[in-house]
Design a protein that fits this description.
four-stranded antiparallel beta sheet; alpha/beta; Rossmann fold; 27% strand; 241 residues
């Protein structure tokens, strides 16, 4: 468990689809400024967990506290306005809108005067987006769309950024860039909970990690420790036990 002040506290969280329990009573803590990863195989319940945390799915049991406040009954858009922001699997950019317009959507609820500064930061992180700022998002490559999805989330000034499979379907050189940017975002003070199937990259990046199997947390600890754990190496890194 983190010694830092908690941004997120999850207790006995359950998520069900009909009669199927996708998430089976998990506990999780994310501390201020941490980068925590959640790894596991397809169907382990990782995305369902993030969707419940962000308010896109109702929890069937348990509690989620964000900055000490229970999120029960708080809709997804209010959680986002409070800084709990999710970048979903599959990017979800607005294809007909330009890069700039997609970034504007991310800043829509903001009332401060630093939107231009945030946009400058996004373009600093992703120079490719600056080059294509007038281009329709639907014409971007998969990697560029992933950059835009992350950039749009940053425009809302997140306090806790939930990233769901940011490397999925991308070329290795683009994956390297995405993980480099995630490190930079965390270094700038944004707390991150990362769901990622690229277990090695996630564990090398994160401070702490949780391992999920069949809807349950089966291991937790320092990411570097889990990276060298024989069970993790055999199950998720493709190495012999």
């Amino acid at each position: 468990m983190s010694s830092k002040a908690s941004v997120l506290e999850v207790q006995a969280l359950e998520v069900s689809y009909g009669g199927i329990r996708a998430v089976k009573g998990i506990d999780m803590v994310v501390g201020e400024g941490e980068l925590v990863c959640l790894i596991g195989a397809n169907g382990a319940g990782k995305t369902s967990t993030l969707r419940a945390l962000s308010g896109l799915l109702p929890a069937s049991a348990g509690s989620v506290r964000y900055h000490g406040k229970d999120t029960a009954g708080v809709p997804a858009f209010r959680r986002a306005r409070d800084g709990l922001v999710m970048v979903p699997e599959g990017r979800g950019v607005f294809p007909q809108l330009s890069v700039d317009e997609n970034l504007d959507v991310g800043a829509y609820a903001r009332k401060d005067n630093e939107v231009a500064k945030e946009r400058g930061w996004v373009f600093e992180l992703f120079p490719r987006l600056k080059e294509r700022r007038g281009q329709a998002a639907g014409t971007l490559s998969g990697g560029e769309q992933q950059m835009l999805a992350i950039g749009r989330a940053l425009m809302s000034r997140p306090k806790l950024l939930l990233l769901d499979e940011p490397s999925m379907g991308l070329a290795p050189i683009v994956v390297e860039k995405i993980f480099e940017v995630i490190r930079s975002i965390n270094g700038a003070g944004v707390t991150i909970l990362l769901v990622e199937q690229n277990a090695r990259a996630a564990l090398e990046l994160a401070n702490r990690a949780y391992v999920m199997e069949s809807g349950a947390i089966v291991m937790a600890g320092e990411a570097r420790t889990l990276l060298h754990d024989p069970r993790v190496r055999a199950a998720y890194l493709g190495e012999a036990a």
